[in-house]
Amino acid sequence: MNRLILKKITQNTRIYHKYFIEKKIESGIALLGWEVKSARFNRVAIDNCYVSVCNAEAYVYNAVFQSNKIQYDNGIYNTIRVRKLLLKKHEILFLMEKVAQQGYTVVVLDLYWKNSWIKLTIGIAKGKKQHDKRNAIIMQDWNREKMRIMKYKYVK
């Protein structure tokens, strides 16, 4: 009876245009209570997020969790604070090894609910050149055109 429920909170679609994604890793993220509430109301932006590894721990930078309230008990909401990723040691070592190579970076792909936990998908990415971006757009257009042709061929 234990079913897996996945529900997208937000997704970073520009990443697929800018980078080749070579590997995806699922990660937990350490959040405060008000950040979880803002995720429930889809008030999260991960457009400019990136992941950095320091002191054998991975952190997410530039993730914006917006709240309706201005203050809570003893402080002010920090909407763009650095958040810790919950990864295993071998995954962190793998990230460090890949980032050390020329041209690789670690980016945030999407944020989603997995049962009652908020999870983050991060990707090992390599930047695209301008001609790669053009080729990707041409292939997308061609695939759309193929689908239209096939649709009209089988309908008639």
From TrEMBL:
UniProt-listed NCBIfam families: PRK05422.1 (NF003843), smpB (TIGR00086)
Highest taxon above the source species: Bacteria
Keywords for this protein: Cytoplasm, RNA-binding
Protein's recorded name: SsrA-binding protein
Principal location listed in the UniProt entry: cytoplasm
Similarity section: Belongs to the SmpB family.
UniProt-annotated location(s): Cytoplasm
Keyword Cytoplasm: yes
Functional note: Required for rescue of stalled ribosomes mediated by trans-translation. Binds to transfer-messenger RNA (tmRNA), required for stable association of tmRNA with ribosomes. tmRNA and SmpB together mimic tRNA shape, replacing the anticodon stem-loop with SmpB. tmRNA is encoded by the ssrA gene; the 2 termini fold to resemble tRNA(Ala) and it encodes a 'tag peptide', a short internal open reading frame. During trans-translation Ala-aminoacylated tmRNA acts like a tRNA, entering the A-site of stalled ribosomes, displacing the stalled mRNA.
A Pfam family annotated for this UniProt entry: SmpB
Source species of the chain: Candidatus Blochmannia ocreatus (nom. nud.)
Database matches in InterPro entries: SmpB, SsrA-bd_prot, SsrA-bd_prot_CS
